[in-house]
Amino acid sequence: MFITVAPRTSGAIAQLIVSPVLGVVLVEFANGYAYEYTNVSRRAICNLLLNRNMSLGFWVNQNCINPDRTLTRDLCFYTTDGVNRGAAGFIGA
Prior knowledge:
single chain, 93 residues, alpha+beta, 5-stranded antiparallel β-sheet, 2 helices, 26% strand
């Protein structure tokens, strides 16, 4: 089950979707790049959902990008010449 995190003011994060059961986080950054993070701390995900004042950018850095335990998968679409076309609304679909 995936839950869309309530929108908050963030210069870096456009959309954040989490699964506290699976330990998976889908992040779409404001620049259009999108990533799937697996093996994210389930406790950290629950904490994010309960604390509405938490910075999304800080949370993603501390719990998805920086930990050695997480695995990352790029969700962006690329053209044949290697140009990133962003998530193309993939996360919100």
